[in-house]
User: What shape does this take?
Amino acid sequence: MKQALIVFSVVAMAAAANAAQPSGEQPNIVLILADDLGYADIGAYGNKVNRTPNLDRMARNGLRLTDFHTNGANCSPTRAAILTGQYQQRCGIEGALGEGAKGLPQQTITIAERLRDAGYVTGMMGKWHLGYGPDNGPTQHGFDEFVGHLHGATDYLSHVDKYGRMDWWHNEEPVNEEGHNTTLITRHSVRFIREHADKPFFLFVSHSAIHFPWQSTTDKAHRVAGQRYEGAVGKLGPPAAGPVQPVVQSMTEELDASVGEILAAIKEENIEKRTLVFFTSDNGGIIRMAGVPIVPANRISDNSPWRGQKHGLYEGGHRVPAIALWPGHIEAGCVSNEPCMTVDLMPTFLALSAVKAGKTDGVSLASLLLQKSVAMKSLSGSKTAPPTSCSTTTSATNHLAGSSSPTSMRSAIWTTFRSGRSNPKLTRTGNQREVKSRSPTSFSAQNTQRSASRN
Assistant: This one.
């Protein structure tokens, strides 16, 4: 099912769209994207089971965002929005790309292309899922180097996709490289950082974890080349028969260890103060999965306190953890309640690099990251004024007017949902129970000035 999510950043942030970087030196940018990681899957967001000391430390030493959303409730739409700074509908990517999908249009301008033109070395390690052929892979969209897989879900150890094809690439060449996806993605990310520590670089660390098939580094390969994998076990891996939770916990902790290795490499190269690291997930976590017995030992992710899960447009499907770390620039131990989303990342990174963003649907969060804004409160408990209201945009509303895809739109405390071509339903953000006393029409007509100024 095709789905789309639109969350609108605050009007107060629009003024930050042209913010310059804090010094004359262009910062390195490391974007770490987890896959299917739920809002409360790490300790910094309340998890008491998964041991995630590196991400928890990253949150203590940086900025933790509590109202950060993905553009889609599954993989490909979010990735398209991150790389282009535009709503995914403009790229024609409204759902997870299946077999035969065209992928990201060649004429699309990505953040990697913008930064490479500005003198950055660009690298991507991990999952692409925006086109299945090497002729439409990362190196065709601005990345100088790519190591990883093109499909959305490969065996972590044999690197075979569900269609029975080997899927591990170095740039445009398939290779047989032994190792678990998380291990290899980490290894190549650390190598890239060390090789380019003396020049500005943009590194997109696009993890497979914790997406199925669920396999930890201690497991054995499940798939072999030449065989198609269907059904619960074929698609999800042997843990689908249960218990799932211990395997996913291991994958989450291995993901955290990867973050720790990347941060350690940055520190060892003495580039901490000129390297922004941003961590988030591509959508909310899976709570229950068809074909997996419903028992406590098979609980997969935790999206608490939000309702819903991956693929759904309640907040559990798209409200995700997000942490920004940049010693000397981002104040340690701060929390922001500002509504933000993945489409804002490209204009943010370009603003911090003093690179013109061009036409984007997102807004720069540079001022939010670099100073104590009205949305922040320190961990000591001191508070400032609450966040300002959100606004809808005419471009997104008009663009989706003829779409049959389920959509979600957010303004301040109100969220509206539309399933297909049915009438929208209005809910109060957070509890997301339908509110029948307020008109969705008046909601979607609010405050369109920001959009009009950009189009």
Observations:
- Residues 245-268 form the longest helix (24 residues).
